[in-house]
Amino acid sequence: MLGLNLFDIIQHILLLLILVFFMKYLMYNPVVKFINKRKETVEQTVKENERLSAEVKEIKENSDKIVEEARKKAETISFEATKEAEARSKEILAEAKKKSDDMIERSKKEIENQKAKLQAEVKEEVGSLAIDIASKVLEREVSAADNKKVIDECLKGWDNN
Amino acid sequence: MKTLRVLSSKPLSDESRQKIENLFKKKLGEEAGFAYEVDSSLLGGIKVIDGSVVYDGSLAGKLEQLKQSLK
């Protein structure tokens, strides 16, 4: 005989059942609960990460869009500014040229006026000198016959008026 | 009767005087007296002065006119 009796077996089985019961409720269930809770936390964290990643992606896309818009705007402003500067530069050059042309024209006119004035002065001086010389010559050279001729012509002229 | 002054560069001959007197009597339409003077600055010809009216037929006057025209 093995020395086993029914009472021992049943006792062992009952002890085993009690052990299993306690093991389930004191260890297995809390562990499972803990594992599930942990799993839940991990899942939440993963979801949160995914949400944050999506948010970051969206922010990055928006940021890139804003940067692109700013770059295009800067390009446009630069182009406009360059065009305006070129136009203004042309305007200033045209104005300067006109002023320069006007000055040249005024100078030419001034020179012409001075020339005409000088010519008139020279003409007057020369004429005056010629007349003075003529006076000196006439003082000496007018004969009685010439004088009579002058007087007769003069009287003829007065008679006709 | 008014008197006209007649200036000449040299003394005038009787013929010239007569011509002058006939002309001015005709011009004035009346008798007038004539006072003859010599003024060598006239250079030649005559100048007749009737009050404020001057008839300048002198060479000096012509030269002066020429001088003025050049101005």
SSE topology:
The complex is a heterodimer of chains A (161) and B (71).
Chain A: H1 6-141, H2 144-160
Chain B: E1 3-8, H1 14-28, E2 33-38, E3 46-50, E4 53-56, H2 59-69
Parallel strand pairs in B: 1-2
Antiparallel strand pairs in B: 1-3, 3-4
Q: What structural class do you assign from the helix and strand content of chain A?
A: mainly alpha
Spatial order of the strands forming the largest sheet of chain B? 2-1-3-4
Number of continuous helical runs of chain A: 2
Apparent shape of chain A? rod-shaped
Gap from first CA to last CA of chain B: 41 Å
H/E element order of chain B? EHEEEH
SSE string of chain A, helices as H and strands as E: HH
User: Which stretches of chain B are low in confidence, meaning pLDDT under 50 for 5 or more residues running?
Assistant: none
Task: Give the distance, in angstroms, between the N- and C-terminal Cα atoms of chain A.
Answer: 196 Å
The quaternary organization reads as: heterodimer
Number of domains of chain A: 1
| Count of discrete domains of chain B | 1
Main β-sheet of chain A: number of strands, strand sense, barrel status?
Answer: none
Please characterize this protein's 3D structure.
The complex is a heterodimer of chains A (161) and B (71). Chain A has 161 residues and is an all-alpha fold. Chain A has two helices and no strands. Chain A has helices at residues 6-141, 144-160. With 71 residues, chain B is an alpha+beta fold. Chain B has one domain. Chain B has two helices and four strands; from the N terminus they run E-H-E-E-E-H. In chain B, strand 1, helix 1 (14-28) and strand 2 (33-38) form a beta-alpha-beta unit. Chain B is globular, with a radius of gyration of 13 Å. The interface between A and B is medium-sized, with 22 and 25 residues.
